[in-house]
Design a protein that fits this description.
Keywords: Cell outer membrane, Membrane, Receptor, Signal, TonB box
Structural class: mainly beta
InterPro entries: Beta-barrel_TonB, Beta-barrel_TonB_sf, Plug_dom, Plug_dom_sf
Family: Belongs to the TonB-dependent receptor family.
Mean pLDDT: 87
Distance between the termini: 58 Å
Largest sheet: 22 strands, antiparallel, barrel
Organism: Brevundimonas vesicularis
Helix content: 10-25%
Radius of gyration: 33 Å
Subcellular location: Cell outer membrane
C-alpha cells in the first residue's frame, strides 16, 4: 500500500498540473500538429515498451551502454563492465568465488538491485534466452557474442507486465547489430591477477549484403582461454592478515578495557592441515571465575574418546609432520588467547587461514568456443524473414575445496574387526597403525590429562591429579575435490516481422512473430573421497612378513570376515571382496607421504548430465490510433507468448551406485517442466504536446495475464506518466506489479549432500562477544528455549559458568541442499520517480535522477544453514521457519560429554517463502562534454565526463514469518555500500587518433560492526576496524587509432593496487577488487 500511496502522490502532482491545461488542448491542436511535423523525431522501440516512440519519452528509467563503451572499457568480459554500474554491482562475474557451488563456476549472471539474478530478466533483441544454471531462467551473458552487441539497454524499474513476471527488478536487453557488412577481428590479452595468470581471446565477425541488399548474412566465432586463479595466487591473502582473539569478557563486564581482538600478519591455523595434525587428549586449567579467557571447569572426560572438547589445539599437545616423522607443533610468537581451542597462532606452524579456507577457485580455468550465424531476408518491402543459430562450448575446471576428516586414535577401538566409521567425516584407527610415527604412538599411549579442582572468583582451579587418556585425534584436509563442467549451449531463432501500413483506424502497424528454442547440456564431473575405502586404506598395519597392508586384508587373510562399514552395503567382507582385494595402504600422516595408487583407491567420482530446455513463441503487433487533441496519436501494442521450460539432471545415482562417498551425493533431478500462456497489452496516450503548460505529457499503461501450468493464472499491470514542462527538464513516474513463479530449481531440486563449517550462534562465548546486544539478549532467551525443547539446560549468558554452552565442532557438519515443492509465487510492487535535466544554459550537460522502491511479498529465498541458525534465534522470538531447517542433538546421557549435546548434526538448505523484502534508493547519472576549441578557442582536445551512481537508502530482509516486523538491514553492510559511483573521464586528445580514459569506481565504507553496538562493547576490536573504509579502484586505458581499420587499446586495471581491508580476513568480497594491478592489450582490425 505504501508504494501505491507514493505512486498516487507522484501522479497527482503531475496530473494536477496537466488537468489545468485541458481547455487549451483543442485550441493548440493545429499548432501542435504543425510543430510536431516540423520537429519530427525518428521513433524506435526502446526497452521498457513495445510501442515505437521518441527515446526521450521512454516511460521507465533506462541506462544505455553502447558498443563503443564495451569495446574500450578495458574490462575482460561484458559482465565485468556491467558490474561496475552501481545498479548491477552484485552481479555474478566469473571472478566471483562461486566455484564451491555445484555447476556455478565461471557463470556471468546479471543481478539488478542486488535482488538476485532470478529477478532480473535478460533478453536478446527483446526475446528470451535459455538459462544456464539448472532449472533457472538466469542467463549467462558471456554466451552473447560480444562483437555483435550494438548496445545494452537496462530498465532499472519493474517491467513484468511488458516482458514477463520475472522482470521484478528490471530488464537487460542486449540489442544486436543489424545488417552488418564487413570483417571485424578483435583480439585481447589480459592479466587476470597480478600473480601472472592471464586470459587470451580472439573474436571474428563477418557479414555480407546480397541480392541488392535484400539479404544480409553474418557469422561470428570466438575462442577464449582463461587461467585458474586460486586464493594462494592473490598476493594480499598470502600475508595471512586477520583479527586474532586475545581477550574475552565476562557477562558482568562486557567492557573490561582490554581489546578483545587485534590485527596480526602471518596468522596460522593448526585446526586442519593438509594431510593432518594430531592432537592428544588434553584439558585446560580452570581459570578464575573473573577471567573468561579459558574455561572454569575441566572439559575432557574419559567416558567418550570422541568428545570434541578433548581435542582443543594446544601448545605441547599438537603434533605436525616433517616427512615421515612427527614433532610437537611450533605455535610461533603469539597464540589465540580465547577458548579451549587455540586454533590460531601468529608465525610458527600451520596453514594460512586466508588461503586454506579459500581453496575454491576464485576464477576457474576455462576454455570456451562460441559461434553464431544469422541473417535477414526481405521477402517483400514490408515482410522480413530473420533467423539465427548459436552454439557455445565451454569447459570449466575448478577447485571446490578439500575432502576432510577426523581420525580418532585409540587402542580401545574395535579390536579384531574393521575400524568403525563414525560419520561421513569421522574415522577410527589404533596406535599400531603402520604409518603412525613411533614417537607419536608412544606419546598417545602414555598420554594423561590433568584433573583440576574448582576455580574460585580470584584463583584458577588447582591440579589434584591426572587421568590416563591414551587417545588422540587426527584432523586433516585430505583429497582435493576438483570439478569439471563441460557445457554446450544451443539457441535457434526464426521469425517474420514487418509493417502493414494502415488497417482501418489503426495506423503504422508493425508486427513480429517469432520462435526461440534454447538448450543447455552440462556434464558435471566431481571428484572426491570414497568414505568406506578411505577407512580401510588409512587403517594400515604390518603383516607377519613386515609388509604394510590394510587391516581388513590382514583380518580376512585366513578366511576371516570383518564388518562392512558401508551403510549402503551392510553385512560382512572377506578376502574375496573387491574393496578388500584392491585395498592400498594410505599414509595419511603428513603432506607428500601418500602413494598415487593409494590415492586412486580412495577416490570417488560423480557424473551428472544436466539439461535446461526452453521453447518460446512470441507474437506482437503495435500501431497508432487516433490523435484526438493534437498531442500525438495513441499508441497500442498487443501480444501473446507461449513458453515451456524443462530441466532434468541424471547420473548422480547411476555414477555412485552403492558407493559411500563424501560428495554431493543424493537423488537425481527428475524431469520437471512447466508451461505458461500469456497475453499482454500496452497503451500510450499523449496528453499534450507544445501546450502553454508544457512541451509533452504522456500516460501509458500495460497489462499481462499469465497462466502457469504449475500455479494457475495471475495478472500484473503497470502505469507510467511522463511530463516534460520545458525542453530542459522531464519527469517520469511509474508503478508496476509482478508475480514471480518459483523456478524448477527452487521447487524440484533433489536433496543432495553438502557440508558446512559451523559457528554456533548459541555458543555462550559467541553470544557474549556478539556486537549487536539486542540480538545477543534475544539469543540468550531463544537458545534456552531451543535447549529446553530437547530436555537440556545451559547457561547462555555467562561464558565463565560451569554449565555454559561450549560446543566444539571437530570438522564440517554434513547437511542437505534441496528444493521446496511447497513454494508459492512471490508478489511485488515497484515505484519509480525520475527527473531528467538537460539545461540549455549548460550545453552538453545532462543529469538523471531515478528514485525507486521495490517491495517483494512472500519472497522466495534460500539462506545458508549458518544464516538460518542465526535467524532462528536472533529475533524477539524463535523464528520457526528457520529453526525447522536445523537438527540439534538432544542426548541427555551422563556418559555423553556435555559439549557434545545440542550440537548441530543436520540441516536442510532450501528456499522458503519469507515475509518480504524492501529496497529503496536513488540512481544518478550525469554526462558532460567539454570541447576546448568551442569553449576556450584553443584545441586542447575534447573531454567527456560521466558519473553513474546509486544511493542505497535501505535494503531490508524480513525473514521471520512469525514476526513480520523483524528485519535485517543490509544497506551499508558488507556487499551493500550506501553509495557507489563510477566516474569516467575520456580525453580525446588534439592528436585525434589518441584517446585516454580514466575510470574510478568508488564506494562508501561498509559496516562490519555497527557503532551503536560498539558503544556497548567498546573493547571488542580497535575502533578503526569497525568498517571497511571507503574503497576506490582506478583504471586507465589508452586507445590509439593506428589507421581507419586498425585500433589498439592498452589498459591498466586497479592501477594503484587497491585491496579490501585486511581486517576482513579470509573472506573475499566481490564488490572489492582482490586481483591487484593488472594489464591488458587489445587489437581491433576491420579490413573491409
Amino acid at each position: 500500500m505504501k508504494l501505491k500511496r507514493n505512486y498516487l502522490f507522484g501522479t497527482t502532482v503531475l496530473a494536477g498540473i496537466l488537468a489545468v491545461s485541458a481547455p487549451a488542448w483543442a485550441q493548440a491542436q493545429q499548432t501542435a500538429a504543425e510543430a510536431a511535423d516540423a520537429t519530427q523525431v525518428d521513433e524506435i522501440v526502446v526497452t521498457g515498451s513495445r510501442i515505437r516512440r521518441d527515446p526521450v519519452t521512454a516511460p521507465t528509467p533506462l541506462i544505455q551502454v553502447s558498443r563503443e563503451t564495451l569495446l574500450t572499457t578495458g574490462q575482460n568480459t561484458v559482465i565485468d563492465y556491467l558490474a561496475t554500474i552501481p545498479a548491477l554491482m552484485n552481479s555474478q562475474v566469473p571472478s566471483d568465488t562461486t566455484a564451491g557451488v555445484l555447476n556455478a563456476g565461471g557463470l556471468s549472471l546479471p543481478n539488478l538491485r542486488s535482488l538476485g539474478s532470478g529477478r532480473t530478466l535478460t533478453l536478446v533483441d527483446g526475446r528470451r534466452h535459455v538459462g544456464s544454471p539448472q532449472g533457472t531462467l538466469a542467463v549467462d551473458v558471456d554466451t552473447i557474442p560480444r562483437l555483435l552487441i550494438e548496445s545494452v539497454e537496462i530498465v532499472t524499474g519493474g517491467a513484468a507486465s511488458v516482458y514477463g513476471a520475472d522482470a521484478v527488478s528490471g530488464v537487460l536487453n542486449f540489442k544486436l547489430r543489424k545488417d552488418f557488412e564487413g570483417l571485424e577481428i578483435d583480439a585481447r590479452w589480459a592479466q587476470l591477477n597480478d600473480g601472472g595468470q592471464d586470459s587470451k581471446r580472439i573474436s571474428v565477425l563477418a557479414g555480407k549484403n546480397l541480392f541488392d541488399d535484400r539479404l544480409n548474412v553474418y557469422a561470428f566465432g570466438e575462442y577464449e582461454q582463461l587461467d585458474e586463479v586460486l586464493a594462494a595466487d592473490i598476493d594480499w591473502l598470502q600475508g595471512g592478515w586477520g583479527l586474532v582473539g586475545r581477550d574475552a569478557d565476562t557477562a558482568a563486564a562486557a567492557y573490561d578495557g582490554v581489546t578483545d581482538a587485534l590485527l596480526y600478519k602471518d596468522r596460522r591455523t593448526l585446526q586442519l592441515l593438509r594431510w593432518g595434525q594430531v592432537t592428544l587428549a588434553n584439558n585446560y586449567q580452570p581459570s578464575a571465575l573473573n577471567n573468561p579467557n579459558t574455561i572454569p571447569t575441566g572439559q575432557c572426560t574419559t567416558t567418550s574418546i570422541t568428545s570434541a572438547s578433548c581435542f582443543g589445539v594446544a601448545p605441547g599437545r599438537t603434533y605436525v609432520f616433517d616427512g615421515l616423522n612427527a614433532r610437537i607443533a611450533d605455535f610461533g610468537n603469539w597464540v589465540q588467547q580465547t577458548g579451549t581451542n587455540r586454533a590460531v597462532n601468529v608465525g610458527g606452524d600451520g596453514e594460512n587461514p586466508n588461503v586454506i579456507f579459500n581453496v575454491d577457485s576464485t576464477l576457474p580455468k576455462s576454455e570456451n568456443a562460441r559461434f553464431q550465424v544469422g541473417g535477414n531476408f526481405k521477402i517483400t518491402p514490408n515482410i522480413n524473414l530473420y533467423a539465427e543459430a548459436k552454439y557455445v562450448d565451454e569447459t570449466t575446471n575448478l577447485a571446490t575445496g578439500y575432502s576432510f576428516g577426523d581420525v580418532y586414535i585409540s587402542d580401545t577401538l574395535n579390536a579384531g574387526n574393521s575400524m568403525q566409521i563414525l560419520s561421513t567425516s569421522a574415522y577410527t584407527t589404533r596406535t599400531d597403525n603402520a604409518f603412525l610415527p613411533a614417537n607419536l604412538a608412544a606419546a598417545i599411549r602414555a598420554n594423561t590429562t590433568p584433573v583440576y579442582g574448582p576455580a574460585t572468583a580470584g584463583a584458577p582451579g588447582a591440579q589434584t591429579g591426572t587421568t590416563a587418556a591414551p587417545f588422540a585425534r587426527y584432523s586433516a584436509w585430505l583429497l582435493d575435490r576438483p570439478q569439471t563442467n563441460d557445457k554446450q549451449l544451443q539457441r535457434y531463432v526464426v521469425g517474420l516481422n514487418g509493417s502493414a501500413g494502415d488497417l482501418g483506424f489503426v495506423k503504422n502497424i508493425d508486427w513480429d512473430l517469432g520462435y526461440t528454442y534454447g538448450r543447455v547440456d552440462n556434464k558435471n564431473v566431481e571428484r572426491g573421497l570414497d568414505i568406506e575405502r578411505f577407512s580401510y586404506a588409512m587403517d594400515a598395519v604390518r603383516d607377519a612378513s613386515g609388509n604394510i597392508v590394510c587391516r581388513v586384508q590382514q583380518l580376512t587373510a585366513n578366511g576371516g570376515t570383518v564388518t562392512s562399514r558401508n551403510p549402503n552395503v551392510p553385512g560382512t567382507l572377506n578376502s574375496q571382496s573387491a574393496v578388500v582385494q584392491n585395498c592400498k595402504p594410505l599414509n595419511v600422516f603428513g603432506l607428500g607421504n601418500q602413494s598415487e595408487e593409494a590415492l586412486q583407491y580412495v577416490r570417488a567420482q560423480l557424473t551428472i548430465d544436466q539439461v535446461n530446455e526452453q521453447h518460446d513463441a512470441l507474437g506482437t503487433v503495435s500501431g497508432q490510433l487516433w490523435d484526438f487533441w493534437g498531442a500525438g496519436p495513441i499508441g497500442v501494442a498487443l501480444g501473446a507468448e507461449y513458453r515451456k521450460e524443462y530441466t532434468e539432471g541424471t547420473g548422480r545415482s547411476r555414477s555412485l551406485g552403492t558407493t559411500y562417498a563424501q560428495l554431493n551425493s543424493g537423488a537425481d533431478f527428475l524431469p520437471a517442466s512447466y508451461e505458461t500462456k500469456e497475453a499482454f497489452a500496452e497503451l500510450s496516450i499523449p496528453l499534450m504536446r507544445d501546450s502553454f503548460l508544457g512541451e509533452y505529457a504522456e500516460l501509458s499503461g500495460s497489462y499481462r495475464y499469465s497462466d502457469f501450468s504449475t500455479f494457475g493464472g495471475n495478472d500484473v499491470y503497470g502505469v507510467n506518466l511522463v511530463y516534460r514542462p520545458i525542453r530542459d527538464i522531464a519527469f517520469k513516474t511509474s508503478f508496476n506489479t509482478s508475480v514471480r513463479a518459483p523456478t524448477l530449481s527452487e521447487t524440484n531440486s533433489p536433496q543432495t549432500q553438502t557440508f558446512l563449517q559451523f559457528n554456533d550462534p548459541c555458543a555462550t562465548v559467541n553470544i557474549q562477544n556478539f556486537a549487536d546486544r539486542t540480538k545477543a539478549a534475544n539469543r540468550i532467551v531463544n537458545c534456552a528455549a531451543l535447549a529446553q525443547q530437547l530436555g537440556l539446560t545451559f547457561n547462555f549468558q555467562d561464558p565463565t559458568a560451569a554449565n555454559a554452552y561450549r560446543p566444539e565442532y571437530g570438522s564440517s557438519v554434513a547437511g542437505r541442499n534441496g528444493g521446496n515443492p511447497n513454494l508459492q509465487p512471490e508478489e511485488s510492487e515497484s515505484f519509480t520517480f525520475s527527473t531528467v535535466l538537460q539545461p540549455r544554459f549548460i550545453p552538453n550537460f545532462s543529469l538523471v535522477l531515478d528514485y525507486y522502491e521495490i517491495t517483494i511479498d512472500k519472497v522466495i529465498a534460500a539462506v545458508s544453514a549458518q544464516t538460518a541458525a542465526e535467524n532462528c534465534v536472533n529475533g524477539p522470538s524463535l523464528n520457526t521457519s528457520a529453526c525447522q531447517t536445523l537438527t540439534r542433538t538432544g542426548v541427555n546421557d551422563p556418559a555423553t560429554p556435555r559439549d557434545d549435546r545440542f550440537l548441530l548434526v543436520d540441516f536442510l538448505q532450501s528456499s522458503i517463502n519469507y515475509a518480504k523484502r524492501n529496497v529503496r534508493g536513488l540512481d544518478f547519472t550525469s554526462n558532460y562534454r567539454f570541447d576546448t576549441q568551442d569553449m576556450l578557442g584553443r584545441n586542447w582536445g575534447v573531454f567527456q565526463h560521466s558519473v553513474n551512481g546509486s544511493w542505497l537508502i535501505e535494503q531490508k530482509n524480513f525473514n521471520n514469518i512469525e514476526n513480520p516486523n523483524d528485519f535485517t538491514e543490509l544497506s551499508s553492510t558488507l556487499f551493500y555500500p550506501r553509495t557507489r559511483l563510477t566516474s569516467t573521464l575520456t580525453w580525446q586528445t588534439p592528436f585525434e587518433p589518441l584517446r585516454v580514459t580514466w575510470v574510478a569506481d568508488w564506494q562508501t565504507a561498509q559496516d562490519i560492526v555497527q557503532r551503536r553496538d560498539f558503544v556497548q562493547n567498546a573493547d571488542s576490536r580497535p575502533a578503526e576496524y569497525l568498517d571497511t573504509k571507503n574503497f576506490m579502484r582506478n583504471d586507465f586505458s589508452v586507445r590509439y587509432q593506428v589507421r581507419d581499420d586498425l585500433t589498439l587499446t592498452g589498459t591498466v586495471q586497479n592501477a594503484f593496487d587497491s585491496e579490501q581491508a585486511r581486517w576482513l580476513g579470509a573472506t573475499l568480497y566481490s564488490n572489492f577488487d582482490p586481483y591487484g594491478r593488472r594489464y591488458s592489450i587489445s587489437l581491433n582490425y576491420r579490413p573491409w
